Amino acid sequence: xxxxxxxxxxxxxxxxxxxxxxxEKREVLSVLDEEALTSPAKEGGKRVRDLxxxxxxxxxxxHVVAVNSGTAALHAALLSAGIQHGDxxxxxSFTFVATANSVIATGAKPVFVDVxxxxxxxxxxxxxxxxxxxxxxxxxxxxxxxxxxxDEISEVARQHSIKVIEDACQSLGSVYKHKQTGTVGCLGCxxxxxxxxxxxxxxxxIATEDDILAxxxxxxxxxxxxxxxxxxxxxxxLRLPELSAAIAKIQVIKLEKMLYLRRKNxxxxxxxxxxxxxxxxxxxxxxxxxxxxxWYLYTIAFESDNERDKIKAKMLSDKIGxxxxxxxxxxxxxxxxxxxxxxxxxxxxxxxxxxxxxxLPVHPLVTEREIDRMGESLKNALDSF
Length: 385
Ligand SMILES: *Cc1c(COP(=O)(O)O)cnc(C)c1O
Known about the structure:
This protein has 13 helices and 13 strands. The chain is α/β, with parallel strands linked by helices. The protein has 2 domains: about 20-255, Type I PLP-dependent aspartate aminotransferase-like (Major domain) (Aspartate Aminotransferase, domain 2); about 255-385, Aspartate Aminotransferase, domain 1 (Alpha-Beta Complex).
């Protein structure tokens, strides 16, 4: 185990990491003891129902329907909203590709919209310029846990009779004007993937106030069935296994605590980086009164060109799991580029962000010493260029 490289004396700091304790293990074992690993019932198994009602309480929303991924949540939400071939769906290109793929899965066409440099969420002016006769839906993505401009987006959507489906996969616990993200649009989608704020490895959920949509979603996650082999609408197997629901259920119970620790780490990191920000032209994440972050990621941007990748490499060599979300942006991936090459109009802020942002870890298991280490590593990297 001995090493001459000083960096190896430190543990690597992951960008995100599941926090599993005794309670999660106990709940998983209880599922195994009961031998009820899943349920084909429309209402789902016992842990699925527990998870849904805990999330309904936390989010203050009428219905939560659990599914087996965030991608499944988006796909099911779009299907329940009637999105289909011939429709256009507006969404940012600066997101995880699942947002766009779920649109493709319905047969509809994704239309990419630019983001704002300020917080990397969808730009309402850009939305207005891309609305057509065919536009049926807008998917704002609360990237990094930054709430999108929901009032302005909802107003444009209302004027054009367009539905709003929130991609809240990164924003569980973020609050927009006293409302949880994912409960502002007609449907909100969450992910419980391993890197997310709350995780069961894989998993997801949809939130809605609408009784009819909730009922449809429960059919869609179960091959459109209600009482056995009676498919009434198109659906798939999107059911969340009981083992996963057991983990997610316990994680909801400790969500407030996890979010508190993220905020604490983010505050410490801000204090550490702030003295460098002016001198080195670093843009820090700006939380505002009406937009509270869950601190899923702590994302900074280097205003100078050609700096980000060098800093990233240096910090990685110090075993700090800094990560770029996302390069390339979706519209520049090979599949989407081929598909939309003719339209290639500029998404200039998306391209800028993709070349300048860097996300730092602030998850609940990051320690105060590790925050200091991150500050030092960043400072050393900046000083060396
Ligand atoms: C994680 C994520 C998804 C997809 O969730 P999965 O659970 O991985 O399917 C969708 N959109 C965004 C913005 C995400 O971060």
